[in-house]
Amino acid sequence: MEKRAEKIRVVLVPLPLQGHITPIMQLGKALNLKGFSITVAQGECNQVSSSQHLSGFQFVTIPETVPVSQYERRPVEFVMKLNKTSEASFKDCIAQLLLQQGSDIACIIYDELMYFCGATAKEFNLPSIIFSTTTATHKFCCSVLSKLNSKKFLIDMQDPEVQDKEVENLHPLRYKDLPTSGMGPLEPYFELLREIIKKRTASAVIINTTSCLENSSLSWLQQELGIPVYPLGPLHILSSVKSSLLKEDKNCIEWLNKQKPKSVIYVSFGSLALMETKDVLEMVCGLFNSNQPFLLVIRPGSILGSEWIESLPEEVSKMVSKRGYIVKWAPQIEVLGHPALGGFWSHCGWNSTLESIVEGVPMICMPFIGEQKLNAKYIESVWRVGIKLEGEMERGGVERAVKRLIVDEESEGLRERAHVLREKLKASVRSGGSSYNALDELVKMLNFVHY
Ligand code: UDP
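Above: the input record for the complex with uridine-5'-diphosphate. Below: its predicted structure, written as tokens.
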């Protein structure tokens, strides 16, 4: 059967952001290992370089005109514009691919936020599958929000009783945990959610999660959509692939090699979060005062008004040179798997969350926007492998959080639970595990729709 699959092509369409590119490339590699040829159709910004990849991968460009930098401030507007501007050129792109000799397309798999792809697939009579880079619980919340009136919701949410009300069928989530922060004005956001649901014509959904993390939300999703749902996560253990848009600084591994086991706090807020200079100063002071060694990722441009770290006062470099190390971009999975790692202070992006759980590393959770808040809630209250850091960034709070995570008695329980969860996740991708089986089912489906 796998021999037959060798000639079958799958087209992948990522959203051009790191946290979306990485898992869809991992999916591509997993399918490639099962014998499929992969075509990645990507926009002009944030392109994954073809040199990083394997044979069996082809890259084509969808010309579009929305600068990715717009996402940081106006995520909803960015996604809507991208969908409007890309549709026509994507159609041309598929038409060209179909003309190429031997380019038999079995299916278009597209990031859920690239919903324009659905119409193209329909036009060319090609099967399509949605790829979701967030959790099933996030989908549940989006479905709840899409049914609400934004004006009424805003008024209702001023009432503390409404804020603390549990969302039906979503224990322990309360209305105040719903993923609305950082998404801009609510009406366009709710409209986007409705648009995504309306344009859903795909015949299946692939999702980077696994049943041991959120079984009941996955059952809900399956029932709600009425089409097959394939939870394949964590994809990065199923198939690793190099897809970093920024250059990884491997020197930090040498620094980690010199640190004591389980002592280092690794701090990274992903590819999009922005911070103010005063908050970074408080953060570094707190890390330094905790007495634990710290590895800090500061992305170029992530401190507002500064190219990199030049806006930070002199005392920061003194503290870093005594007990810390700063990089612009880390080889995160390698860092999380290093024996010196004691904890991960994260923004709780879904990829970072999965990567941390897979390495059994407990977390300090400081969500910035959207579904990160949900992930943080689950990390702290459901899986109980992390603690939340809330309120203003302040050195005393940071110091206490690091000590709770790495030094205090509480840290043992966190580590133990993280270890147990890690084993469950690893089992899910091993032969006979739920994600392993879901991948087999997906491969069967792709072969079936093709022949
Ligand atoms: N990442 C990395 N090096 C860094 C920081 C992040 O390789 O210094 C990777 C991380 O491993 C993850 C991705 O960038 O795969 C970030 O995705 P996530 O969903 O956690 O957050 P986002 O960037 O979408 O907010």
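Notes for the reader.
The CA atoms of residues 131 and 179 lie 19 Å apart.
The two ends are 12 Å apart (CA to CA).
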